[in-house]
Write a structure and sequence with these properties.
Layout lengths: L2 E5 L10 H9 L3 E3 L16 H14 L5 E6 L2 H11 L4 E7 L16 H10 L5 E2 L3 H8 L5 H8 L5 E2 L1 H4 L14 E7 L23 E5 L5 H4 L1 H12 L2
Parallel strand pairs: 1-2, 1-3, 3-4, 4-7, 7-8
Antiparallel strand pairs: 5-6
Helix pairs in contact: 1-9, 2-3
């Protein structure tokens, strides 16, 4: 049995990964699906990156979790990198599913094309939250889904705190120097970042020695084929 902690990306909560967790649980694994500060129902949208990181650390402490595989999706890569840097002896393996791999001092907005960062800033509401425009969601995030499926999934999203994307992350070492095993799970049709500025190998190679697992699918495989995603997470997370 392996213990998995799956950390969602921007605009999501842990609830969107229930279908992905099902095949892992069916295989006998323990799965945790926390929701980060800023994305929980009723959360303020002016929280920063450190608040989100602290919320995961608090969850892990409250659940008394050790020796777990820590999975991060997209923005979740910022969070799992920080947590692994701070409690390295408790993390068994890191799995980045089309996720950001930051270096010390970088914000998520430093890792996307400049026009993306400008768009995010322009979308910021008075309360500090930003919402994904549906045309971008449909064409770049759920490009392998029907219109009806994209609309249904979009209805489950929530506004995301801008500061968690613009705050720089502080690390004591580069991701490649983290002592645990690392995997990168790459969906080959993911164009949430353009392939000219893509996830793999641009970000994955920052991990140093890592296991590469690939499969067909978009950035939102948790909606379009959660069973496949669950099996690929097990492939990425195995010893």
């Amino acid at each position: 049995m392996t213990r998995y902690v799956i950390v969602h990306g921007a605009w999501h909560t842990g609830a969107e990964f229930e279908a992905t967790a099902a095949p892992l649980r069916a295989a006998g694994h323990e799965v945790h699906l926390p929701t980060l500060a800023g994305n929980r129902p009723g959360d303020r949208k002016d929280v920063g990156l450190e608040d989100a990181i602290a919320s995961l650390l608090e969850y892990l402490d409250a659940a008394r979790l050790d020796d777990f595989v820590l999975v991060g999706h997209s923005y979740g890569g910022m969070i799992i990198t920080a947590v692994a840097d701070r409690i390295p002896t408790r993390v068994r393996r890191l799995v980045y599913w089309n996720a950001f791999v930051p270096q010390d001092g970088e914000a998520l907005t430093d890792l996307v094309p400049p026009q993306y960062a400008e768009m995010f800033a322009a979308l910021r509401a008075e309360d500090g939250g930003i919402m994904m425009p549906f045309p971008i969601w449909r064409e770049a995030f759920m490009n392998d889904a029907s219109l009806a499926a994209a609309e249904s999934a979009y209805g489950r999203l929530n506004a995301h705190p801008w500061r968690t994307l613009s705050d720089p992350l502080r690390l004591t070492r580069p991701p490649a120097a983290l002592p645990m095993g690392k995997s990168f799970l790459n969906c080959t049709e993911d164009i949430a970042l353009p392939h000219s500025h893509g996830w793999h190998p641009r970000l994955s190679e920052r991990l140093g020695l890592f296991r590469l697992v690939q499969c067909a699918g978009s950035h939102e495989l948790c909606f379009t084929n959660p069973e496949l995603l669950g099996h690929k997470m097990m492939e990425a997370g195995r010893d």
